[in-house]
Specification:
binds phosphoenolpyruvate, 12 helices, TIM Barrel, 43% helix
Length: 256
């Protein structure tokens, strides 16, 4: 069975104490998980250690911490960057790679992201790999070609075994991120099915069926259940709605 995942991307929000309080509030009301269900808290770097301590106390193996970025080099003169080993020291096992905000504001190219993916997988880390098209590409009906290129240039060089073990794909149409405009279930399902068909064509049926594909983009307490009910949607990458227990908990509960 494919993993079902709800990941909260806190971006550059919340102080450390606020973050710890949020995770405690969520933990206090968590549903009972099945083994294929997971929640990942992708906090700012400064919060990871404390949040990890909190979730470790629960001994709940469905809870994880994730970083929002990392560097592909092991060490050196990369001012402001963080290495994979540094994240592992904090107990982090997942990293978001290729978020549209990193691509847009920090000019992260498909090739650059490929290097990060390779470094993370060589270190047995779990990659939440983001893809998704801007509005003008959707309006020109070119979204499939856009997403295919992102996947081809950053992750489709991996072996079937490696991609299955280490990658979760998050489809995040840029026009839906932080805008309050959610992709319709039809739009989400169509793209997720397309991505699965690419996995089947590039690899095989087993790989296509085993890789989780999350939806991200204004997913909230009101629309999560409908989106997650789509055959090829295996959970969500959640921004704004991950910052409050009352909006994040119903999304976790919508994960089947
Ligand atoms: C995101 O940034 O990954 C995201 C999905 O944000 P939001 O849920 O706020 O649209």
């Amino acid at each position: 069975m494919r993993k079902k995942i709800v990941a909260g991307n806190w971006k550059m929000n919340l102080g450390i104490q606020e973050g710890v309080q949020l995770v405690n509030d969520i933990i206090a009301k968590l549903p009972v998980f099945q083994t294929h269900q997971h929640v990942i808290f992708c906090t700012p770097f400064t919060h990871l250690q404390k949040v990890n301590e909190v979730i470790n106390q629960t001994k709940n193996s469905s809870l994880h911490t994730g970083a929002q970025n990392c560097h592909d080099k092991t060490s050196g003169a990369y001012t402001g960057e963080i290495s994979i080993a540094m994240l592992q020291e904090l107990g982090v096992n997942s990293v978001i790679i290729g978020h549209s905000e990193r691509r847009q504001y920090f000019q992260e190219s498909n090739e650059f992201l490929k290097n990060k993916v390779d470094a993370l997988l060589a270190n047995k880390m779990h990659v939440l790999f983001c893809c998704g098209e801007p509005l003008e590409v959707r309006e020109a009906a070119q979204q499939n070609a856009w997403v295919e290129k992102q996947l081809q240039e950053s992750i489709f060089h991996l072996s079937a075994e490696t991609i299955q073990q280490g990658i979760t794909i998050a489809y995040e149409p840029i026009w839906a991120i932080g805008t309050g405009v959610t992709a319709s279930t039809a739009q989400a399902q169509e793209m997720h099915a397309f991505i699965r068909s690419l996995l089947q064509a590039t690899y095989d049926e087993d790989t296509a069926q085993n890789i989780s594909i999350l939806y991200g983009g204004s997913c909230n307490a009101a629309n999560a259940a409908e989106l997650f009910a789509c055959e090829d949607v295996d959970g969500g990458l959640i921004g704004g709605a991950a910052l409050k227990a009352e909006s994040f908990l119903p999304i976790i509960e919508a994960m089947k």
